[in-house]
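testing teh design pipeline on a random one, pls ignore if ur not involved
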Protein backbone atom coordinates (compact mmCIF):
# COMPACT_ATOMS: atom_id res chain seq x y z
CA UNK A 1 0.00 0.00 0.00
CA UNK A 2 1.02 3.65 -0.31
CA UNK A 3 1.04 6.20 2.52
CA UNK A 4 1.88 9.88 2.28
CA UNK A 5 4.75 10.69 4.65
CA UNK A 6 6.16 14.22 4.75
CA UNK A 7 4.47 14.95 1.46
CA UNK A 8 6.02 11.99 -0.35
CA UNK A 9 4.37 8.84 -1.63
CA UNK A 10 5.76 5.99 0.49
CA UNK A 11 5.37 2.31 -0.22
CA UNK A 12 4.85 -0.23 2.55
CA UNK A 13 4.37 -3.95 2.01
CA UNK A 14 1.56 -5.44 4.10
CA UNK A 15 2.25 -9.14 3.70
CA UNK A 16 -0.43 -9.75 1.11
CA UNK A 17 -3.39 -8.64 3.23
CA UNK A 18 -5.13 -5.30 3.68
CA UNK A 19 -3.65 -3.29 6.51
CA UNK A 20 -5.82 -3.07 9.64
CA UNK A 21 -4.57 -0.67 12.30
CA UNK A 22 -6.78 -2.35 14.90
CA UNK A 23 -4.62 -5.49 14.86
CA UNK A 24 -1.21 -5.75 16.58
CA UNK A 25 1.23 -4.19 14.12
CA UNK A 26 4.68 -5.47 13.25
CA UNK A 27 7.00 -3.09 11.38
CA UNK A 28 9.95 -4.45 9.40
CA UNK A 29 12.83 -2.08 8.51
CA UNK A 30 15.23 -3.05 5.73
CA UNK A 31 19.01 -2.74 5.74
CA UNK A 32 21.40 -0.68 3.63
CA UNK A 33 20.40 -0.40 -0.02
CA UNK A 34 17.59 -2.93 0.35
CA UNK A 35 13.79 -2.69 0.46
CA UNK A 36 10.61 -4.43 1.65
CA UNK A 37 11.46 -7.59 -0.29
CA UNK A 38 14.04 -8.48 2.35
CA UNK A 39 11.15 -9.57 4.55
CA UNK A 40 8.98 -11.53 2.07
CA UNK A 41 8.45 -14.67 4.15
CA UNK A 42 8.24 -12.97 7.55
CA UNK A 43 5.74 -10.32 6.50
CA UNK A 44 3.46 -12.88 4.88
CA UNK A 45 3.40 -15.13 7.95
CA UNK A 46 2.57 -12.32 10.36
CA UNK A 47 -0.09 -10.88 8.04
CA UNK A 48 -1.89 -14.24 7.87
CA UNK A 49 -1.59 -15.04 11.57
CA UNK A 50 -3.35 -12.29 13.48
CA UNK A 51 -1.17 -9.24 12.87
CA UNK A 52 -1.00 -6.26 10.59
CA UNK A 53 2.29 -5.68 8.82
CA UNK A 54 4.19 -2.62 7.63
CA UNK A 55 7.45 -3.04 5.72
CA UNK A 56 8.30 0.37 4.28
CA UNK A 57 10.77 1.27 1.58
CA UNK A 58 12.72 4.19 3.01
CA UNK A 59 12.61 7.48 1.06
CA UNK A 60 14.37 7.18 -2.28
CA UNK A 61 14.43 3.38 -2.08
CA UNK A 62 12.64 1.23 -4.67
CA UNK A 63 8.92 2.15 -4.64
CA UNK A 64 9.12 5.14 -2.25
CA UNK A 65 9.49 8.70 -3.49
CA UNK A 66 11.65 11.40 -1.92
CA UNK A 67 15.34 11.93 -1.39
CA UNK A 68 17.45 9.48 0.57
CA UNK A 69 17.84 10.45 4.22
CA UNK A 70 21.37 11.31 5.26
CA UNK A 71 21.67 10.10 8.86
CA UNK A 72 20.34 7.40 11.14
CA UNK A 73 18.90 10.14 13.34
CA UNK A 74 16.85 11.42 10.38
CA UNK A 75 15.74 7.90 9.57
CA UNK A 76 14.55 7.28 13.13
CA UNK A 77 12.51 10.50 13.02
CA UNK A 78 11.10 9.49 9.64
CA UNK A 79 10.01 6.11 11.02
CA UNK A 80 8.08 7.90 13.77
CA UNK A 81 6.31 10.02 11.15
CA UNK A 82 5.63 6.92 9.07
CA UNK A 83 4.00 5.07 11.99
CA UNK A 84 1.81 8.05 12.80
CA UNK A 85 0.85 8.47 9.13
CA UNK A 86 -0.26 4.82 9.10
CA UNK A 87 -2.58 5.53 12.01
CA UNK A 88 -0.90 3.08 14.38
CA UNK A 89 -0.50 3.59 18.11
CA UNK A 90 2.42 1.24 18.81
CA UNK A 91 4.42 -1.31 16.82
CA UNK A 92 6.74 -4.23 17.31
CA UNK A 93 9.76 -2.86 15.41
CA UNK A 94 12.17 -5.24 13.67
CA UNK A 95 15.29 -3.99 11.90
CA UNK A 96 17.93 -5.75 9.84
CA UNK A 97 21.46 -4.34 10.06
CA UNK A 98 21.15 -0.58 9.43
CA UNK A 99 17.41 -0.95 9.94
CA UNK A 100 18.00 -1.79 13.59
CA UNK A 101 20.06 1.37 14.07
CA UNK A 102 17.01 3.24 12.80
CA UNK A 103 14.84 1.35 15.28
CA UNK A 104 17.20 2.41 18.07
CA UNK A 105 16.82 6.02 16.99
CA UNK A 106 13.05 5.57 16.88
CA UNK A 107 13.27 4.31 20.46
CA UNK A 108 15.31 7.35 21.47
CA UNK A 109 13.08 9.89 19.78
CA UNK A 110 9.61 8.35 20.14
CA UNK A 111 9.63 5.49 22.68
CA UNK A 112 5.86 5.78 23.09
CA UNK A 113 5.44 4.19 19.64
CA UNK A 114 7.10 0.88 20.54
CA UNK A 115 5.93 -2.42 22.01
CA UNK A 116 9.16 -4.34 21.42
CA UNK A 117 12.35 -4.14 19.37
CA UNK A 118 14.28 -6.81 17.51
CA UNK A 119 17.60 -6.52 15.73
CA UNK A 120 18.64 -9.02 13.05
CA UNK A 121 22.29 -9.33 11.98
CA UNK A 122 23.26 -6.12 13.70
CA UNK A 123 24.87 -4.33 16.66
CA UNK A 124 24.75 -0.92 18.32
CA UNK A 125 27.23 0.50 15.82
CA UNK A 126 28.12 -0.63 12.31
CA UNK A 127 31.51 0.67 11.12
CA UNK A 128 31.89 0.60 7.34
CA UNK A 129 35.15 0.18 5.46
CA UNK A 130 36.01 3.50 3.75
CA UNK A 131 36.89 1.61 0.57
CA UNK A 132 33.35 0.26 0.42
CA UNK A 133 31.89 3.72 0.91
CA UNK A 134 34.08 5.06 -1.90
CA UNK A 135 33.07 2.17 -4.14
CA UNK A 136 29.40 2.96 -3.49
CA UNK A 137 30.03 6.61 -4.37
CA UNK A 138 31.32 5.52 -7.76
CA UNK A 139 28.89 2.68 -8.43
CA UNK A 140 26.10 1.23 -6.28
CA UNK A 141 26.26 -1.92 -8.39
CA UNK A 142 29.96 -2.50 -7.78
CA UNK A 143 29.58 -1.86 -4.05
CA UNK A 144 26.57 -4.18 -3.92
CA UNK A 145 28.70 -6.93 -5.46
CA UNK A 146 31.26 -6.48 -2.69
CA UNK A 147 28.66 -6.37 0.08
CA UNK A 148 26.83 -9.45 -1.10
CA UNK A 149 29.97 -11.53 -1.48
CA UNK A 150 30.69 -10.86 2.19
CA UNK A 151 27.09 -10.68 3.35
CA UNK A 152 26.03 -14.26 2.65
CA UNK A 153 27.34 -17.46 4.19
CA UNK A 154 29.05 -20.21 2.23
CA UNK A 155 25.87 -22.13 1.36
CA UNK A 156 24.42 -19.14 -0.52
CA UNK A 157 27.72 -18.61 -2.32
CA UNK A 158 27.35 -22.15 -3.69
CA UNK A 159 23.86 -21.35 -4.94
CA UNK A 160 21.85 -22.97 -2.14
CA UNK A 161 18.62 -21.03 -1.60
CA UNK A 162 15.81 -21.20 0.95
CA UNK A 163 13.40 -20.57 -1.93
CA UNK A 164 13.79 -23.08 -4.79
CA UNK A 165 14.38 -21.40 -8.12
CA UNK A 166 15.47 -18.08 -6.61
CA UNK A 167 19.04 -16.89 -6.12
CA UNK A 168 19.18 -14.48 -3.17
CA UNK A 169 22.53 -12.96 -4.14
CA UNK A 170 21.23 -12.07 -7.60
CA UNK A 171 18.05 -10.58 -6.13
CA UNK A 172 20.04 -8.54 -3.61
CA UNK A 173 22.32 -7.25 -6.36
CA UNK A 174 19.36 -6.12 -8.44
CA UNK A 175 17.80 -4.22 -5.53
CA UNK A 176 20.96 -2.60 -4.16
CA UNK A 177 22.25 -1.45 -7.53
CA UNK A 178 19.19 0.79 -7.94
CA UNK A 179 19.02 2.22 -4.44
CA UNK A 180 21.00 4.94 -2.59
CA UNK A 181 23.52 2.54 -1.09
CA UNK A 182 26.18 5.20 -0.64
CA UNK A 183 23.96 7.40 1.54
CA UNK A 184 23.00 4.41 3.65
CA UNK A 185 26.58 3.28 4.21
CA UNK A 186 27.70 6.77 5.21
CA UNK A 187 24.80 7.04 7.66
CA UNK A 188 25.75 3.69 9.21
CA UNK A 189 29.40 4.61 9.54
CA UNK A 190 28.60 7.86 11.35
CA UNK A 191 26.05 6.58 13.89
CA UNK A 192 27.27 6.77 17.49
CA UNK A 193 24.14 6.77 19.71
CA UNK A 194 23.63 3.04 20.15
CA UNK A 195 25.19 2.58 23.57
CA UNK A 196 23.39 5.58 25.03
CA UNK A 197 20.06 4.45 23.61
CA UNK A 198 20.56 0.96 25.05
CA UNK A 199 20.46 2.42 28.56
CA UNK A 200 16.98 3.82 28.00
CA UNK A 201 15.17 0.87 26.39
CA UNK A 202 12.27 -0.33 28.52
CA UNK A 203 10.37 -2.57 26.07
CA UNK A 204 11.20 -6.26 25.45
CA UNK A 205 14.16 -6.66 23.12
CA UNK A 206 16.05 -9.36 21.30
CA UNK A 207 18.91 -9.77 18.85
CA UNK A 208 19.03 -12.50 16.23
CA UNK A 209 22.65 -12.94 15.22
CA UNK A 210 24.48 -15.00 12.60
CA UNK A 211 27.53 -16.97 13.65
CA UNK A 212 29.21 -16.39 10.25
CA UNK A 213 28.36 -12.70 9.90
CA UNK A 214 31.33 -11.01 8.23
CA UNK A 215 29.77 -7.54 7.88
CA UNK A 216 28.56 -6.92 11.42
CA UNK A 217 30.86 -9.12 13.51
CA UNK A 218 29.18 -11.63 15.78
CA UNK A 219 31.21 -10.40 18.77
CA UNK A 220 29.92 -6.86 18.27
CA UNK A 221 26.34 -8.09 18.28
CA UNK A 222 26.89 -10.11 21.45
CA UNK A 223 28.52 -7.16 23.18
CA UNK A 224 25.61 -4.90 22.30
CA UNK A 225 23.10 -7.49 23.50
CA UNK A 226 24.74 -7.24 26.91
CA UNK A 227 24.44 -3.44 26.85
CA UNK A 228 20.82 -3.69 25.80
CA UNK A 229 19.91 -6.49 28.19
CA UNK A 230 18.37 -8.28 25.22
CA UNK A 231 17.60 -11.92 24.65
CA UNK A 232 19.99 -13.38 22.08
CA UNK A 233 19.48 -16.07 19.47
CA UNK A 234 22.40 -17.31 17.39
CA UNK A 235 21.66 -18.89 14.01
CA UNK A 236 24.50 -21.14 12.96
CA UNK A 237 25.97 -21.59 9.46
CA UNK A 238 24.54 -18.37 8.03
CA UNK A 239 25.83 -14.88 7.28
CA UNK A 240 24.69 -11.28 7.58
CA UNK A 241 21.65 -11.50 5.29
CA UNK A 242 19.57 -13.58 7.68
CA UNK A 243 16.07 -12.42 6.61
CA UNK A 244 16.82 -13.56 3.04
CA UNK A 245 19.36 -16.31 3.64
CA UNK A 246 17.70 -18.05 6.62
CA UNK A 247 14.10 -16.79 6.38
CA UNK A 248 12.40 -19.66 8.21
CA UNK A 249 14.82 -19.64 11.13
CA UNK A 250 14.55 -15.86 11.41
CA UNK A 251 10.75 -16.03 11.34
CA UNK A 252 10.65 -18.65 14.09
CA UNK A 253 12.73 -16.47 16.40
CA UNK A 254 10.54 -13.44 15.70
CA UNK A 255 7.46 -15.49 16.55
CA UNK A 256 9.04 -16.58 19.83
CA UNK A 257 9.43 -12.98 21.01
CA UNK A 258 6.34 -11.31 19.60
CA UNK A 259 3.79 -14.13 19.94
CA UNK A 260 3.77 -14.27 23.76
CA UNK A 261 3.51 -10.49 23.97
CA UNK A 262 0.27 -10.62 21.96
CA UNK A 263 -0.96 -14.05 23.15
CA UNK A 264 -0.59 -15.40 19.62
CA UNK A 265 1.02 -18.80 19.02
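output:
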Amino acid sequence: MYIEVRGNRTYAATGGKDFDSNLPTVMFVHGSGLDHRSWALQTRWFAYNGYSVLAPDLPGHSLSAGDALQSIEEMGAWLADFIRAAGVGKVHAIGHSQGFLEVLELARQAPELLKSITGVGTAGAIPVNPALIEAARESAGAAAEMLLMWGFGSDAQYGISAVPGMQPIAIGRQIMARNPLHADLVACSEYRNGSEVAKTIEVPSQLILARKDRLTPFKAGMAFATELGANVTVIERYGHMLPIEAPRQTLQKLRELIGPLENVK
